[in-house]
Amino acid sequence: MILCCQSETCSMSIPELDFEVGGRALGGRFSTPEGLLQAAAQQLREAPGLMGDAPGLAQDKLSGFLDKLEEVLEGKRAITLVLDDPAGNSYVQCLSDDPKLPDDGLKVTHYERSYEQNDELGLNDMKTEGYDEET
């Protein structure tokens, strides 16, 4: 079993379904990957204006996407779930009987944040040296 701690700065994407949810859209969660997908599907179903007031074409696309997501949750469709947290506040953990055995389906990639990611987090304007001096 895999557990995910998804912070509010974590985006989620599913490349096979051309789906991406930006950070802060889902809020923070501690769940399984299935739980994250179920929460995303529920938010899409319950979002005001997405189903009832949206034009017909948008409704059809959303309904089709939710059908595909349901196939994923039923185990009928394989996907790659990508969690990207530029703040580094999210984590994924495999809870196997032997924690020394790697999970072949789990990949963690560490990277340097881009300028845009730092800007979104408010880090580019942060004064880290000489902050006690007057400007």
Q: Can you put this structure into words, describing what you see?
A:
One of its GO terms (molecular function) is zinc ion binding. This is Zinc finger protein ZPR1. Residues 126-135 have a biased composition (Basic and acidic residues). By secondary structure, the chain is α+β, with helices and mostly antiparallel strands. The protein has one domain (2-120): Jelly Rolls. The protein has helices at 33-46, 56-73, 115-120, and strands spanning 2-6, 11-14, 19-21, 29-31, 82-84, 91-94. Strands 4-1-6 form a 3-stranded antiparallel beta sheet, covered by helices on one side.
Give a quick set of tags describing it.
135 residues, three-stranded antiparallel β-sheet, zinc ion binding, ZPR1_jr_dom, zinc, Zinc finger protein ZPR1
Quick recap:
The chain is α+β, with helices and mostly antiparallel strands. It has one domain: Jelly Rolls.
Note the total helix count: 3
Strand order of the largest sheet: 4-1-6
Kindly provide the radius of gyration, computed on alpha-carbon positions and rounded to a whole number of angstroms.
18 Å
Percent of residues in helices: 25-40%
In the CATH scheme, what's the topology name?
Jelly Rolls
Q: Topology, please?
A:
Blueprint: E1 2-6, E2 11-14, E3 19-21, E4 29-31, H1 33-46, H2 56-73, E5 82-84, E6 91-94, H3 115-120
Helix pairs in contact: 1-2
